Amino acid sequence: MEQHVQQWLKDKRTAHLDELKEFLSIPSISALSEHKPHIKEAADWLAKNLQSAGFDHVQVMPTNGNPVVYADWLHAPNKPTVLIYGHYDVQPVDPIGLWDTPPFEPDIRDNKIFARGASDDKGQTFMHIKALEAILHTTGTLPLNIKFCIEGEEEVGSPNLDRFVEVNQNLLAADVLVISDTPMLDKGRPAICTGLRGLCGLQIDVKGPKSDQHSGLFGGAVQNPIHALVRLLDSMRDEEGHILIDGFYDQVIPITEEERAAYQFLQMDEEKVRQELEVPALFGEKGFSMLERTWVRPTLEVNGIYGGFQGEGIKTVLPSEAHAKITCRLVPDQEPDQIVELLRKHIQKHTPPGVTVQVTPFDKGYPFMTPIDHPAIQAASRAYEKAYGVAAAFTRMGGSIPIVATFNRLLHLPVVLMGFGLPNENFHAPNEHFHLENFDLGLLTLCHYWFELANTPV
Amino acid sequence: MEQHVQQWLKDKRTAHLDELKEFLSIPSISALSEHKPHIKEAADWLAKNLQSAGFDHVQVMPTNGNPVVYADWLHAPNKPTVLIYGHYDVQPVDPIGLWDTPPFEPDIRDNKIFARGASDDKGQTFMHIKALEAILHTTGTLPLNIKFCIEGEEEVGSPNLDRFVEVNQNLLAADVLVISDTPMLDKGRPAICTGLRGLCGLQIDVKGPKSDQHSGLFGGAVQNPIHALVRLLDSMRDEEGHILIDGFYDQVIPITEEERAAYQFLQMDEEKVRQELEVPALFGEKGFSMLERTWVRPTLEVNGIYGGFQGEGIKTVLPSEAHAKITCRLVPDQEPDQIVELLRKHIQKHTPPGVTVQVTPFDKGYPFMTPIDHPAIQAASRAYEKAYGVAAAFTRMGGSIPIVATFNRLLHLPVVLMGFGLPNENFHAPNEHFHLENFDLGLLTLCHYWFELANTPV
Carries keyword Protease (chains A, B) (predicted)? Predict the structure, then answer.
């Protein structure tokens, strides 16, 4: 890679961080409808940024939900075309009281930038634009063809992206899909992710008496919807988190000895994780390591529960309703639709007497795996080694990027997941941040990657 | 009873309801500290009302919490002295969205007055003042001596009343305690309550990882505090609501065949209750009727639960915390302190691995029973029959008035529980109301009672 690309990144560092702060200041929360105007603002901001970076055909393209930002640079004939996917929407910020600085007032301290979306995924999407801008402005050209597809509904399960990709197959056609939304192993330990868990889930609404009742007058004679919900949820997992839904594990591909060895080689420090999370003990299915539990095993988690009195002090109420939100992380070859059906059946079978239960499924995502020996992945590995000085590990990941499967299915292209976030950067939680060491080395890695990939037959 | 007392009540009906509306408009919620000014406003309002009704020594007496309103009329030598207890504080109003009219804008429709506190207990406390005022203004005197003790912390467990009663034993000394805060059996079916359940409870705070985590990255490897809480709560009751806390039933006095027959005689229409509550089925311990389940059996209810994401849509979080509030209704001879200890032990023994649990007890109340053949109770029975034309049933009640035991213990006086609310008047729930038929007949009953009791040696 040419020396003045590096110099440019160095010279522009402060300006880049100022731009990023501007982007992170927009509260583009896709889960809450009151933030619709900020979604538009973030999409427009991105379009302007892509334009000024030198991309062509910049468009904010409508969908049935939030818009997709598209841009391209296609002036490298006979060279591969890369589709870069990212998302400009972010998670909600509650509990807001636990943030040290406001989530939408980006703050740099300890060489980290703190803001909702700093790591997931505004920061990493922004890096892609800046890396390519650096090459374009210093060399006057790019070594390969680039297309951007940046959506605004990833954090709510990308309900409209499948349709968008289907309709725009020609526009999005490429040789490789690159996504930076997966974590590194640790500081100084880059990783290329070769597998993602899928996702499905549902809201469970339990209804008891028509209105809240006095627990003294009716307690003991009327089913309490919270107790009913508690019993229902407790029936879904055993004490080690093994899932008790009939047929849940039927399609799970068992872990191979080779995978087990590969993950043991990573020497995950479980005690360090335990200390960082400040829990008395880690937890999970017997016979599996922490990496195996989060990478190759499916899960079922209650993400939220609520019912009855939540205020200060005591209210002796027998509530009318109780609610829970659950999601399952899925692994190959579990089918999200099939798992939702199994959940429904379980709930129906285990609904306690005296209440009615309603179930509303959330959007779904397929689990996914990509072969380690693909040339586009090997090229990424070389790029990491040049920037970080160490080989990237090959990993899988516990999270879900549902659209990966969509791109693979509709555009038939391999996926390279090269993310720069650290595992403890609080994505989806208060005090989300992004370490600027990986902002700097990540920009370098991406620049190296485009030159490596330009000379790789994919 | 003299004819012009009745006439007075008739003539003053509209004025009385206007006064009551004024009283009900004050949002004197004791559970929420932001309502402190309204607590004071309600106490002052009562004092003014007692003053203008003709009582002496009207005082708003400070406690370590909310003040107690005291007043008396002691000009009937050689006649019994009655202590009337009531409370001017009310329950919180959430979920506010389910009220048809605002909780603190009293509205009369279908001959019912709708407001928080209409029935529990502002409406009934107010009736006591108006009944005595009617006698005093039409006859120029009262047939017996009266003391009022109206507190402002009943809905939060009366944390300061024990001390208040202890310090003011002489001031409050009386021959009979009368309280109107228990329900009738049904429209036209008055009841004198001879037993109350006690109360104890606690808040359970489950703490997992130090902050909310991404359910994809840590799900399956870190205990989810909601699952831990769900398991803990589910361990406390079986599927019929029978409580699984070791030793919980040890002190429960078994129901006698006589009581069972007395309650069967009441011919409780369980199907009607089921329909009114709009539940698919009633519920409870096998071998007990609904009345037995709510009157003579102890219970354990989750009054509130919360943790993780409660907003619109989905948030794939593994939450840091989960919380529940539970209360037990106790029956003679369960000791509240002892039951709290049993709960603590159970929680300690059943805390799932990977989380820590903190327990905070709420205030407690003893269960209570009073003999049916006491002359003050028999006089009340005659008063009801004169006003309603039917004999009052003798019942017990599922709710708790913790201070009843306090009065009994410190002042050594029998308690007459003669309430005028209907069981479906939504105390503690949205759309609380009070039927005006019982406002009218209740005023008459109380007037009759004072004349009956004046001629009864107690």
Answer: yes
